[in-house]
Amino acid sequence: MLYRTMGRTGVSVSALGFGCMRFLNRRGRPTWGPRFDTGAAISLLMAARDAGVNYFDTAYNYMGGKSESVVGEFLRAAGSRKGLHIATKLPVWLARRRTSFERLFSVQLSRLGVEHVDFYLLHALNESSFARVCDLGVLEFLDSLKKDGRISFAGFSFHDKPAAFAPIVDAYGWDFCQIQYNIVDENEQAGRTGLEYAAGKGLGVVVMEPLRGGDLTGGLPESVETAWKRAGRARSAAGWCLSWVLDQPGVSTVLSGMNTRVQLDENAGVASAVLPGTLTASALKAVGGVQRAYRSLHGVGCTKCGYCMPCPAGVSIPRIFMIYNEACMFPGSGIPGMDYNSSLKPEARADRCTGCGLCESRCPQRLPVREKLREASRILTGGSGN
Ligand code: SF4
Ligand code: SF4
Fold this sequence. Notes:
2 domains, binds iron/sulfur cluster, 12 strands, TIM Barrel, globular, single chain, eight-stranded parallel barrel, two-stranded antiparallel sheet
């Protein structure tokens, strides 16, 4: 296993981190829910430790609220916590008042069976959730946790538009951050620009979703399969995706939500081999071909410039097109449909379009927005069109 320094913390973390958000159920199928095979999960965590993994990432809500407890069991089974780094996250969406932070943190300590957390993150920040918890005093709360030694380092995980990232980085003396980053999200969310910005400011950068929850490794569209073949057989698609992330110098550790020994062994092998800046030009070119293959699957060439907004009917045009493009790239995944239904209010969905045409007159790409919204609605609602 190779190790990297986690930004200004100076802590040496394994290039591969363990994301404890998905384990196998008793029938051997991956699950995100609370009914999983605890014994198998602990065995795998022990095997990861034995392979040199020293960064274990959990959260209040993972595995239906059971992930922190199983990490606690793992720590007890390991006998010693020495050299292991535990990261967990404050579910900011559950905080309604200032006292909520302390209450939630106490629950987390008790689930983990510890008195101290190494890396503590505000979970899934976006512009508005960050503003809300700042008003509730969350930054003062983090200060107090660091001061009394209940956490070593404070960070945040991020899911929002690229422009929201730097202001959050600049708003506090963070030690580290966690971002979604992979070959198809190079310019989404924090993106490469955000990764380099945070690393340049001295933050450790933890990468999550390097394989997009497995979407980048299984059931691949033919054009993507063909593009991967050009990368060569030295590594699988998963191996190449991890290598591409690990090649980037700002990355401190890459989390993988492994649930089998085979995955652990393959990922640990990659994390033991790839130093920053060592992918060859031909490997990078081949990965570029895969990125282009994914982009060519997009259903609509929306650049998310936002010039079409606001829509007088309230339709969230760029956001819908972003989810629609995800559905086109990953046709076997149920996530875009779920995202459409859960993250967009009914009044912002595609079926609210009145057909006025204002957006098309503003769109610099001259996209047939109305037609594409109808298509998106049909695909994302399973053909019902609403
Ligand atoms: S055509 Fe539809 S989406 Fe475009 S501005 Fe009019 S109502 Fe909004
Ligand atoms: S103006 Fe066109 S390209 Fe820009 S966000 Fe709207 S639909 Fe997309």
